[in-house]
Design goal:
Elements: E1 4-9, H1 20-28, E2 31-36, H2 44-49, E3 58-63, H3 70-88, E4 93-98, H4 108-115, E5 121-125, H5 130-138, E6 149-153, H6 158-167, E7 170-174, H7 180-189, E8 197-200, E9 208-211, E10 226-231
Parallel strand pairs: 1-4, 1-5, 2-3, 2-4, 6-7
Antiparallel strand pairs: 7-10, 8-9, 8-10
Amino acid sequence: MKGKLYGIGVGPGDSELMTVKAARIVGEADIIITPKTEKKDGSVALNIASPYIQEHTEIVPVVFPMVLDDATQEEGWQEAKRIILSYLDQGKSVVFLTLGDPMFYSTYMYVYRLIENTGHEIETIPGVTAFCAIGSHLGYPIVEKEEVLAIVPATAPKEKIDAVLAVADDAVIMKVYKNFDEVQETLIKHNMADDAVMISRVGLPDEQVFVGLDNMPKDTKLNYLSTILAKRKDR
């Protein structure tokens, strides 16, 4: 009997934001795969899912190299594929945990592509995204009426971000931990900084909330899990 792979979004931080289906499947899993980089120990996604994990389940950390070298990265992906397939070929129920939603800026998407044509069944369980959690947490409407929402990774080229924010009414800006100064500058340029909000590690015990980003120091150190919601003030 062949095993089945489940991609499960655990949400942004609060274990109770996991769906009922996600919690059930985590509790039934034979194997839980937790992605990690070689430089980092522990797993936020695993901590979130931990209330639902049972004693019989084996936790398997798998390294996904976050490097620019294509050969090293490909070697890491193929090793991850080998590990996952070894459990699926044994007929195991394998869960791959990911923060937020599995199909939204997630490592899981690459795993899905590696496994999808191997003959094994795959089921993907959606999760609450960080920006949806932030909007609800702060009472901050993300988009309404005929407004246009842009979702932008801050790692994109500055010119591309500038062009997108020039036409958007509302914006979700992800991955702002490395270049907050450039993002802040672009938000100010497009009159979107005054009413912007940002949360680092939403739903986790060390959550940080920033309201109004126009006067924040440019060298503010941010956690990797930081997301901005912004609205154009003149619309």
